[in-house]
């Protein structure tokens, strides 16, 4: 049952907050509903969830059009520049800004629509090949460049840590992302005041919360395993 799984995830977040001396109100649970049908999304909605994450533009737009208006949608998947126009103005936040060129496209579309878009810069914090995200080394420079673009609000950083059996192995990466955020804020760059850290998925969200996550993106633990072949 989705509602029971949500309850469990929330309890785990609360316990992780207690261990870290944080308040659960600092952590937003984003229910990742990609590939899941509207009926399941509505089960989560009826259990009180109003913040959902999606990866694919077409699926996201269809869900926005058919599901209740008070849902906050977060784009968390890799975004192609030619699809930016379909989501600007419709999503609460884009987590997956992984290049200056993508940020420029979002900025152009935002200005055109007279909108301000909240974005996160995606960092490939473990330096994995075949994974999107800018490198830790380039982060300050790219964040600075993006922060000068009109129509954008750089709210923080996002990462997808490696897939590991033991979540403890990812603790250092969550710590690194938090530190990167602290370091960038300390530089007092114009227009940069980042307070969002989007990190932690089904396998590692409790460790991410212990290390300072303010948004966790949880799919499988809420909706069950995904089947991409349907
Ligand atoms: C699919 C996905 C998630 C959720 O993953 P689970 O392991 O199912 O919790 C979170 N973040 C991103 C970027 C994803 O693509």
Give the topology, please:
Layout: H1 2-20, E1 28-32, H2 38-46, E2 51-54, H3 57-66, E3 72-75, H4 84-87, E4 93-97, H5 100-112, E5 117-122, H6 139-147, E6 152-158, H7 171-186, E7 196-198, H8 205-210, E8 215-218, H9 220-223
Parallel strand pairs: 1-2, 1-8, 2-3, 3-4, 4-5, 5-6, 6-7
Bound molecules: pyridoxal-5'-phosphate.
In brief:
With 230 residues, the protein is an alpha/beta fold.
Characterization of this structure:
This protein has nine helices and eight strands. α2 (38-46) links the parallel β1 and β2. By secondary structure, the chain is an alpha/beta fold. It is globular, with a radius of gyration of 17 Å. An eight-stranded parallel β-sheet has the order 7-6-5-4-3-2-1-8. Pyridoxal-5'-phosphate is lined by residues 32, 34, 55, 76-77, 160, 201-203, 217-220.
Largest sheet: 8 strands, parallel
Number of DSSP strands? 8
Q: How do the SSEs run, as a string of H and E? A: HEHEHEHEHEHEHEHEH
Strand content: 15-25%
CATH class: Alpha Beta
Number of helices, counting only DSSP H or I runs of 4 residues or more: 9
Q: What do we call the CATH homologous superfamily?
A: Alanine racemase
Low-confidence stretches: none
* CATH architectural group: Alpha-Beta Barrel
Counting structural domains, the number is 1
Strand order of the largest sheet: 7-6-5-4-3-2-1-8
Helix content: 25-40%
Please, what is the average pLDDT? 96
The secondary structure category is: alpha/beta
Q: Distance between termini?
A: 21 Å
- Overall, the morphology is globular
């Amino acid at each position: 049952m989705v509602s029971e799984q949500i309850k469990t995830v929330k309890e785990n977040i609360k316990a992780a907050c207690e261990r870290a001396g944080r308040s659960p109100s600092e952590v937003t649970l984003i229910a990742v509903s990609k590939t899941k049908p509207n009926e399941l999304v509505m089960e989560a909605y009826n259990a009180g969830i109003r913040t959902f994450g999606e990866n694919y533009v077409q699926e996201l737009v269809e869900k926005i059009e058919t599901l209740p208006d008070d849902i906050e949608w977060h784009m968390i998947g890799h975004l192609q520049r030619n699809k930016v126009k379909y989501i600007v103005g419709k999503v609460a936040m884009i987590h997956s800004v992984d290049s200056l060129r993508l940020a420029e496209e979002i900025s152009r579309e935002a200005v055109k629509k007279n909108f301000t878009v909240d974005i996160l810069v995606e960092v490939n914090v473990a330096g994995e090949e075949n994974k999107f995200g800018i490198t830790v080394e380039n982060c300050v420079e790219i964040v600075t460049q993006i922060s000068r673009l009109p129509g954008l609000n750089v709210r923080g950083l996002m990462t997808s840590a490696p897939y590991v059996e033991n979540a403890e192995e990812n603790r250092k990466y969550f710590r690194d992302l938090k530190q990167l955020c602290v370091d960038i804020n300390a530089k007092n760059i114009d227009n940069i005041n980042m307070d969002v850290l989007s990190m932690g998925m089904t396998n590692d969200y409790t460790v991410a919360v212990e290390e300072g996550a303010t948004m966790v993106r949880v799919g499988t633990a809420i909706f069950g395993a995904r089947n991409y072949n349907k």
